[in-house]
Specification:
This protein has about 350 residues and is α+β, with helices and mostly antiparallel strands. The strands form 2 sheets. Strands 2, 3, 4, 5, 6, 7, 8, 9, 10 and 11 form a 10-stranded mixed sheet that branches. A 7-stranded mixed sheet has the order 1-14-12-15-16-17-13. The longest helix has 14 residues. It is globular.
Length: about 350
C-alpha cells in the first residue's frame, strides 16, 4: 500500500455524498465500470455497443483488443467513460499460444525467452490501428507455461501498445524457425484482472433483467464496480468537503483544501477524492508531495476532468466570498473558488489608498 501523508485533520459530513459502494443502483449505472470478458470474434467497439444496448447508457472501453483476442476489456458507463483513457497507458498482461513453424529444442526456446525482454523495437503489424512506424516498447516479464511439440504457451507482462503478434514473429526469426501467434488472451489490464470480478455478456444481461423485472439488484452490483476502481493506479489526494463543490464548478485545488495525499512528483496525474472515497476529479499535480506538505497557500492540482455532480456537497466557497476573516475563509476552502481566488474589493481600495 502506498504511504499516505496527512496534512491536516478533518471529518466528512455524512449528510452529503456517499461511499462509492453505497451508491444507489441508478447512480452506479452511470458511474460504474465493468471488467468484461470479451469473447473472440467481435471488435471491442461492438462489445461496448452490446453493453450499451443491455444497460441503456453511454459506454466506452479502455484498451482495444483485436477481434481474435479474448479477455479483460474494461467497459465504462455514463460519466465514467471519461476515465477510459487512464487505462490506455497501464501495463497489460497476456497468455499467448505461439506456434513455431519448425522444431526447436526446449533448451533453445527457454534460453531465448530469458533474454528476449526489456526494451524492444517493434514495427506494428500490417493489420493494426496505428501508423506503422518503428517504436520502442518494454516487455517486463515472460514466463514459459508449457511447451508441446511446436506449440509454446507463455505469459507476458508488457507496456501498453506492445504487439504480441509481432513479438511472436520476431521470436521465430531470432530462433530460426519462424513462428506466429496462434491464440491470445488478455488476463490483466491495469488494475483489472481475469481472476477478479470478470463478467461475461450473458452474466451482465441476466443481472440487468433480474433487476428490472424482480427488483433484485445484488447480482447487478456484482457485475458493476464503482468508477473509483479505474483510478486505482493513480496517486490520490483527499480533499475537504468544503473544497468539493468549487471543484465541481471548475476550480483548481488549493492548499487549504488538502487533507491527506500519497507520494507523487510535479506534473503527474492524480485522482482527487472526497473523504468518503468518492472520485471528485482527475488532474495534474502542480507541486510534488513534499512541497505540498510544506505549503501554506497556492494551487497544488489543476483539475482536468470532473466526475462529481455539482451540488452533491454544499457551496462552501460562496460563504468564503462573503466572509471578511482570512481564517474563516481558509477553513471554508477559500482558494477553491470557481475563478481561482477571492477578491475583497474594499480591502483592495484601502490598500490602494495607503500605497498612494
Amino acid at each position: 500500500m502506498p504511504e499516505v501523508f496527512t496534512k491536516c485533520e478533518d471529518v466528512t459530513d455524512p449528510v452529503y455524498g456517499c461511499a462509492p459502494d453505497k451508491r444507489p443502483i441508478e447512480e452506479l449505472l452511470r458511474k460504474g465500470v465493468i471488467n468484461l470478458d470479451k469473447p473472440r470474434g467481435p471488435t471491442s467497439h461492438q462489445v461496448a455497443a452490446w453493453v450499451k444496448d443491455i444497460m441503456g447508457s453511454k459506454t466506452g472501453h479502455g484498451g482495444t483488443l483485436d477481434p481474435a483476442v479474448s479477455g479483460c476489456l474494461p467497459v465504462f458507463l455514463g460519466t465514467a467513460t471519461r476515465l477510459a483513457d487512464t487505462l490506455l497507458l497501464s501495463n497489460k498482461e497476456y497468455v499467448c499460444l505461439m506456434r513455431m513453424h519448425k522444431h526447436a529444442t526446449k533448451k533453445d526456446i527457454t534460453a531465448l525467452f530469458s533474454i528476449f525482454h526489456g526494451q524492444l523495437w517493434q514495427r506494428p503489424p500490417v493489420k493494426s490501428a496505428v501508423k506503422r512506424e518503428l517504436r520502442k516498447r518494454a516487455v517486463y516479464k515472460v514466463e514459459v507455461l508449457e511447451i508441446e511439440e511446436n506449440d509454446v504457451l507463455f505469459r507476458i507482462e508488457c507496456e501498453a501498445g506492445t504487439y504480441i503478434r509481432k513479438y511472436c514473429h520476431d521470436f521465430g526469426l531470432i530462433i530460426g524457425t519462424e513462428a506466429h501467434m496462434q491464440e491470445l488472451r488478455r488476463v490483466k489490464s491495469g488494475i483489472f484482472k481475469e481472476e477478479e470480478n470478470l463478467i461475461t455478456l450473458q452474466d451482465l444481461k441476466d443481472a440487468y433483467v433480474f433487476w428490472k423485472e424482480a427488483g433484485e439488484e445484488k447480482f447487478l452490483r456484482r457485475c458493476i464496480m464503482p468508477m473509483e476502481a479505474a483510478a486505482g493506479e493513480l496517486p490520490k489526494v483527499w480533499i475537504r468537503d468544503s473544497a468539493i463543490d468549487s471543484m465541481c464548478h471548475g476550480a483548481d485545488l488549493a492548499v487549504p483544501g488538502v487533507v491527506k495525499l500519497e507520494k507523487f512528483g510535479k506534473g503527474k496525474p492524480v485522482a482527487l477524492l472526497s473523504l468518503k472515497g468518492e472520485l471528485v476529479a482527475v488532474g495534474k499535480s502542480l507541486e510534488a508531495t513534499e512541497d505540498i506538505m510544506r505549503a501554506k497557500k497556492g494551487f497544488v492540482v489543476k483539475a482536468d476532468k470532473v466526475f462529481m455532480d455539482p451540488g452533491t456537497y454544499p457551496k462552501m466557497w460562496k460563504k468564503a466570498e462573503e466572509s471578511s476573516e482570512d481564517a474563516a475563509k481558509d477553513e471554508a476552502g477559500e482558494l477553491n473558488s470557481p475563478n481561482g481566488k477571492i477578491v475583497d474589493d474594499e480591502k483592495s481600495e484601502r490598500d490602494g489608498e495607503s500605497s498612494s
